[in-house]
Amino acid sequence: MGITGGFGFPLGCAAVVAASIGADVAGATAHPLYALVPLALVVVAAAATTAPAAAAGIAVVAWAVDSGFILGREGHLLFDTASGRAALVLGAVLVVGLLSRLVVTAAVRARRRVHPRPHRFVASVPSPRTAGQRRTDHAASA
Question: What pTM, to 2 d.p., does this model score?
């Protein structure tokens, strides 16, 4: 149900960069919430589709991009109230995404236990019989 961490982390980081650029164009430097919402959407999508460690890494990268480039324009990480709030929001979104993935996975497994997949029947062709076996079968049926 997901993307492996080896692909999920780089794809998530690219999505974080794209979301932050889009938010910056939309005016996120004046309104930091404009950047936090798309970054939170990227984190929750990553948590629902990739490995938990990769999703946690994506959340950290999202916080660093928000703190360094949206809240602080020079690329230096800021440790203030706004960056702390962003860390809490991204951490909460990460937990919600991971929990939703667990719930969906448990529901799918429970459904498979209740409604197992039907068995596939494989057509088999009998092995060729020797002339002696054919005579014996013909004599038995007569």
Answer: 0.75
